[in-house]
Amino acid sequence: MLRSRRRPTEKGRKPCYRSSRHSPMKANEVFDEFKYEALRCEAKKNGHYTKLGFDVIKLFPTHNCVVFHQRMGSGLCQPVQAIDVLIAEMRVFGFKYQPQPPVSKQWRQTDYVIMDPQEIASRSRDKDKKKIVDVLLGQATNADLAVVPIVGMGGLGKTTLAQLIYNEPRIQRHFELLVWVCVSDTFDVNSLAKSIVEASPNKNHDTDKPALDRLQRLVNGQRYLLVLDDIWNNKEFHRWEMLKVCLRHGGMGSAVLTTTRDKRVAEIMGATDYNLNVLEDCFIKKIIEARAFSSDKGKPAELVEMVDEIVKRCFGCPLAATALGSVLGTKTNVNEWRVVSTRSSICAEET
User: Fold this and answer.
1) What are the angstrom distances between the C-alpha of 88 and each of 3, 82, 83?
2) How many CA atoms lie within 13 A of 242 on its CB side?
3) Are 28 and 146 members of one domain?
4) Rama region for 155: left / alpha / beta (φ>0; ψ in -120 to 50; rest)
5) Do 256 and 325 belong to one domain?
6) Is 276 within 8 Å of 160 (Cβ atoms)?
7) Do both 10 and 91 map to the same domain?
8) What is the residue-wise DSSP string for 41-105?
9) How many domains would you assign to the chain?
């Protein structure tokens, strides 16, 4: 953001925008030529020129790398000079650059509290929950840290499944310490270690010590379950190893449960991932009906008949079913439902 301190301009001085007025257009032209050159080199490398034949090759101008570099160097000068002019004018008028505050990530924050009044989630993911709970409890005599990643596309219900596991009575009784942390798009080791400590009910208050030291002290000797929800971009092995060194100080049978869309993340964490499948249509239908029909208005028969067709558009994705059901809840007749059914394209089979 730019703000002016409203300094008076010099008498008779007018801001000069002439040199900068066409700079965006000129810059775009230069960048387009760079793109064209990259495509041309790629085509030549892959032998496409030969495939096109001599007659087509004659349509392309003769290419000279030296001439191209000189022309591009000259072409870049004007946009760069225009930027210099703008900077000088900013200083004359007293403009100051003020960086924008980072965008809040609160919209994606999750916790272990699950909202499932009709128990659709618990019934639809019961088999998945039991399998993972058995794996976690089966690590009781394992001295090494167990890592279980839940992998699946967005909207499939990975976080919901993790919530069901976290709140399972057997899990609550087995582990001495349970901690839930939403990682989202930043896997910064120190920040994550601090978040884990702060999320724990047994957190220590040695705030003057490094976050990793505090984390090691927190888990030391305790059998814990740590849920790292929604890991996006932990693509560097050494980051996970730095965190894992501290987590290994936990008691025997400790485990880390993670959710991620990226199978590569699970591989880096050195674990056998649990691939989450789509929901059965019967549960998708229940989700849509729960959202679309309010208890006081009932379920009009003509609208109920249309639900099966809408179920097919969700491809087993509960988030798509929730979104479509919520939209349908604002519609009252068959024509309005038909418009939603035919025009909405929330979810494809793989995305």
Assistant:
1) 15, 10, 9
2) 15
3) no
4) left
5) no
6) no
7) yes
8) HHHHHTTHHHHH-HHHHTTSPP--HHHHHHHHHHHHHHHHHHHHHHHHHHHHTT-EE-PPPPPP-
9) 3
Torsion sign across C-alpha atoms 233, 235, 237, 238 = negative
| One domain, residues 152 and 182 | yes
Spell out a b/e string for 244-263, using b for 16 or more CB atoms within 10 Å of the CB, else e.
Answer: eebbebbeebbbbbbbbeee
* C-alpha to C-alpha distance for 343 and 351, rounded to whole angstroms: 17
DSSP label at residue 106:
G
User: Which DSSP state fits 153?
Assistant: -
Domain span including residue 295:
281-343
Return the closest-CA partner of residue 136 out of 179, 166, 160, 114. Answer: 166
Dihedral-angle region of residue 221 (phi above 0 means left; psi in -120 to 50 means alpha; beta otherwise): left
Report pLDDT digits (tens) over 302-348.
Answer: 898 899 989 988 889 999 999 999 989 888 889 988 888 877 556 65
Q: Which residue type is seen at 181?
A: V
Q: Are 198 and 218 in contact (CB under 8 A)?
A: no
Do both 66 and 192 map to the same domain? no
Residues 157 and 286 in one domain: no
Q: Are residues 236 and 288 in the same domain?
A: no
In a domain, 65, yes or no: yes
Tokens 């491809």: give the residue: 315
Average pLDDT over residues 82-102: 73
- The CATH number that applies at residue 165 is 3.40.50.300
pTM of the model: 0.69
- Which of 217, 245, 275 is the endpoint of a domain? 275
HEC assignment per residue over 169-236: HHHHHHCCEEEEEEEECCCCHHHHHHHHHHHCCCCCCCCCCCHHHHHHHHHCCCCEEEEEEEECCCCC
Check whether residue 122 and residue 265 sit in a common domain: yes
Give the residue-averaged pLDDT of 214-221: 94
Average pLDDT, integer, range 199-220: 88
Q: How many Å apart are CA 50 and CA 53, to the nearest integer?
A: 6
Q: Does 204 reside within a domain?
A: yes
Question: If 0-12 CB within 10 Å is exposed, 13-18 middle and 19+ buried, where does residue 319 land?
Answer: middle
